[in-house]
Prior knowledge:
It is built from four helices and no strands. By secondary structure, the chain is mostly helical. The chain starts with 21 loop residues before the first helix and ends with a helix.
Amino acid sequence: MHARVPRIRFAARAKLRPPDPGPCGRGNCRPATAPLAVLALAGCSGPQSALDPQGPAAERIADLFWLFTATLTTIWLLVLLGLAVAIMRARRAPLADPLALDPAFEARARRVVGILVVLTAAIVAAFTILSYGASRPLA
């Protein structure tokens, strides 16, 4: 015969209330956030701002930063587009044998991956050369 496990009754459970959200949980912090936003935006200009370069060397570095940002944003969007296309194509009817390889698809995938590897190497090399060229006058 096995021992009986006593049931624990949680009488205190009925007395539990959700925690008080505080003053910000009731919408009272909205007026306080406006000055904080103004203070954050005040850092976008002036002598120590990364978004307001002072001098020719700082402008070259800032231009390089924005080129990097634009290029990498474009790459990120293209990757997301490729992911969306892959997800949409995966919704077609399942194959009879999921382990069977399609030689035409494999060749096309190998070609696409090879092109993307070469493009990645070219972008890294170009960024390295541009970065060296932008920082060379600083030395």
